[in-house]
Amino acid sequence: MVELLAVILTLFSGLAFVYLLKYVTKSKQDFPQKLPPGSMGWPFLGETHGFLKSHRSNSLGSFLQEHCSRYGKVFKSHLFGSPAIVSCDFEFNMYVLQNERKLLPVDYPKVMHNILGKFSLILVKGDLHRKLRSTVISFVSATKYETQFHRCVEMLVLSRINSWDTNSKQVAFYKEAKRFTINVMMKHLLDINPYDTVASKILENFENYIKGFISLPINIPGTAYFKALQARIRLTAIIKGIIVERRKCNHVRPAQGGDLLNVILSKDNLSTEEMVSLVLDLLFGGYETTAKLLSLIVYFLGGASNALQRLKEEHQEIRKRKKEGEPLNWDDYKQMEFTQNVINEAMRCGNVVKFLHRKAVEDVKFKDYVIPAGWKVLPVLSSGHLDPTLFENPLEFDPFRWDDNSTSKQVAPFGGGPRFCPGADLAKLETAFFLHHLVLNYRWKIKGDDPPLALPYVEFTGGLLLDLEPTG
Ligand code: HEM
């Protein structure tokens, strides 16, 4: 009897075990609640050091290459002090960017919050983001067609190019490009000319302001972080002073369109703090990014003689249709088709912005995986740009690939979704006008080996020194 009971018990527990196993496996298939594979790296430190390690910006870098081949295009890690999911999957990246408002809002490191301030368009969310962004969008979409803006850009291109001392025959191009883009922004936003005394004060403080974004938040005199916070205080005071002056002037003679300041002063739903923040955000957004794009183009064209020749021909054609010294206009810009290919290719290949910061506020399902609420999500924009399944020879700078309609359009250098870069069209126009005068007046050679590096934002550590020769 005891033996019979033992047999029944064994059979019963065996059946129960099989049932349990089946249930567990089934429920796993029905509710796949697993994290993407990956490694969390060192305790506390995670893998941030490896993730930020510099590499050529027209490559993915060894960290991403190794992680993608070991774990796949979406993997877990521990970055910037938080558990994180890194995505090198173009489709998932687009999903992340499109769902910024509800599921995956921006989540920049704390150091940026302290420097940019609580009204920064780049950081704010919800209704405040909608309000500030709509002001920027209406300003940018109106001015890109304005003759006054085209004239101002061209005048600043010429003043930069004409300042080059042809005797020394050498320029540090990255610095020149930065001067040009900050001058455009200062004129366009605040009606400040390059030689106004306030211009050099803004420039000086702005360099320190920007350096703070990639610093450690140690607020003691001498640190980059401390200098950035001080620079923000000074910049705020300068811009507030300009606002007070402009209000007085507009009171006497009401403003008619013009720069950003007039546009924001005409809105009665913006506080002075929000106005200052908008000006700083646009100066920040439009300064280094566009200068990096210009420098990338000059760098890549230095090794692409066929593309440079075609670019030159396009601009010579435009000149032939114009009178001597006649300024460029919107119609000319629309004729610059190959120039657009060069810009697209430099953006794809050079990756001005490598990745963006987001955070899951709810559990997010991706294929068989779940990204838990509270985790950081970092869409890597460069991964799609350099994906050999999307682009043939992806590491090669080849603007001609954009002539071909079958070329993948899966690029996102300006981000996507509700935070798509509002300055994209301005950046392209400034770049095209600069290239017009550069290729018509100069040929250049890059001195030494100074490739664009992802640090993680693109940098030319040697300043991109060029040997210049006027084409005569
Ligand atoms: C080649 C030049 C540029 C590149 C590559 C670039 C890239 C980007 C990217 C990737 C974003 C999205 C950030 C995110 O989703 O978190 C962005 C946002 C932004 N950009 Fe640009 N940008 C460029 C030029 C400009 C210019 C010229 C301006 C100003 C006139 C500007 C102003 C901004 C602002 C204010 C935002 C924040 C938008 C928001 O959060 O709603 N950018 N940019």
Task: Provide the fold topology.
Layout: H1 2-30, H2 48-52, E1 55-56, H3 62-71, E2 74-79, E3 82-87, H4 90-98, H5 110-116, H6 126-143, H7 147-162, E4 170-172, H8 173-190, H9 197-211, H10 224-252, H11 260-265, H12 272-301, H13 305-320, H14 330-335, H15 337-350, E5 358-359, E6 364-366, E7 369-371, E8 376-379, H16 381-385, H17 424-441, E9 442-446, E10 453-454, E11 458-459, E12 465-470
Parallel strand pairs: 3-8
Antiparallel strand pairs: 1-10, 2-3, 4-12, 5-8, 6-7, 9-12, 10-11
Helix pairs in contact: 5-10, 7-8, 7-17, 8-12, 9-10, 10-12, 12-15, 12-17, 13-15
The structure holds protoporphyrin IX containing FE (HEM).
Residues 106, 121-122, 133, 136, 281-282, 285-286, 289-290, 293, 352-353, 356, 413-415, 419, 421-423, 426-427 line the site of protoporphyrin IX containing FE.
Keywords: Heme, Iron, Membrane, Metal-binding, Monooxygenase, Oxidoreductase, Transmembrane, Transmembrane helix
Pfam family, one: p450
Cofactor: heme
